[in-house]
Amino acid sequence: MPQLFADCLNEILEYLEGDMITLYSCLLVNHLWCEISVRIFWRNSWDYNYSNLRTLISCLPTESKEILSKNGIIISTSTSKPPMFNYASFCKGLSINRVDYKLKQILRNQQSVSLQNLNNNTYILAQELYKLFFSQGSLKILDLYLDRNFNFYPGAKECLKNLSELRCKPAVLSSEILYQLSQTCHNILSLDITVDRVISKELTDLISAQKNLKHLDIKCFCTEGGLKDVISSLTNPNKITKLCLYTTFHCFSLSFIIEFTNLQELELDFDYDECFKDFEKLQYAFFPKLQILKIEYGCPKYELLIKFLEKNGKNLRECYISYCKYNGDVNLLKLAITEFCPNLKKFFIRNRV
């Protein structure tokens, strides 16, 4: 019976993920509540406040604290007592950019230093904190959207071997980091990348190493050849169930989407209608499992979109379309949605300014 209660409590507290105020209150109820809620409270670094990071800094090993001291970095902590838990081991989602930002705010509020010294101290402090994460944790989500290179810390291979979601901007990552990721991470299910330069072999190797990739999000600012390199490196495109594409200008053909035969969600976020000039290559494509369609900025001609919905509207549950009078008669589009999308639960037309 006690175990049943603990399992039920765990199920309930899971719904509080991200609600740091309520979770903190749960920590104070009793020992059982604390043991269960502490793992949720420390799960995702993007939910951390300054107090979380100060606690982690107090948990740094002596060697790291000596490095901080030698560089004149002194962070006040709320307590000198030893930690009750290995908090870093509970972290499953790490956002490098957000942690960097909050560490810089802690240093800015505590020390009066020049901008150059502030950036340098932030980097030093961050390195020691990431060493702690990678030596103690087992990450599921890693967000490497940052404006500087990143280091492959000791313990990273063990920490990242079960990574299921990666978000990154490969252009700012060294070839060595991409290589190490390709050698370590083989179970990524969701990949979010910004492609704005020549595609490196290390990046294509990282993509091709993923045998069970389900979600692919590409923000593309490169040439069509660059995107082709990304798509051609996919081992099993027919396993992709969610595809999101974003671009500010037309730089690639959309015909490759036809290969993603098991798509359940398709999102095309293009700034201009011109980006859809070859949507005619998709109008007769068939995606039997498609349930969500989002085209919220630029939009193809409605006559092409209507033909697409005729083939793929049967199982749609959600549809988000951008409205522009130059794309055709919106009333005809609405009639087509009524006829071809019998299972639609959400429909939204976004008026463009």
Automatic annotation (TrEMBL):
<dbReference type="InterPro" id="IPR032675">
    <property type="entry name" value="LRR_dom_sf"/>
</dbReference>
<protein>
    <recommendedName>
        <fullName>F-box domain-containing protein</fullName>
    </recommendedName>
</protein>
